[in-house]
Design goal:
Elements (H helix, E strand, L loop, with lengths): L1 E4 L2 E9 L14 E10 L7 E7 L9 E5 L2 H24 L2
Parallel strand pairs: 4-5
Antiparallel strand pairs: 1-2, 2-3, 3-4
Length: about 100
């Protein structure tokens, strides 16, 4: 999913541990990774590149890897990340 606004662009990709042949279900298939990239309008390089991951994953060049022991902890941290981004965007709108 890609979300674009006049102030910049935020991309995210959410991966689930799915069962073969089944569409992921929240109560059966945990979210295992959420990747984010935030680029401000007019800039060519992203300001933020991170990935929230369940347990561990290999390092990713140019990205911050945030590892969590359980899905709930990971989702709460991602929620806090999104709220922080929204607060910063809201503050920048007040100054323009």
């Amino acid at each position: 999913m890609q979300v674009t606004e006049f102030y910049g662009e935020k991309k995210k990709d959410i991966e689930c541990a799915g069962r073969k042949g089944h569409f992921p279900e929240a109560d059966k298939d945990p979210v295992i990774q959420i990747a984010n990239m935030i680029t401000l309008q007019g800039e060519s390089k992203p300001r933020v590149r991170n990935i929230f991951t369940l347990k561990t994953c290999a390092s990713i060049a140019g990205a911050e890897v945030l590892s969590f022991e359980n899905e709930a902890e990971m989702l709460k941290a991602w929620r806090d990340f999104v709220i922080t981004v929204l607060l910063l965007v809201g503050q920048s709108h007040c100054w323009h």
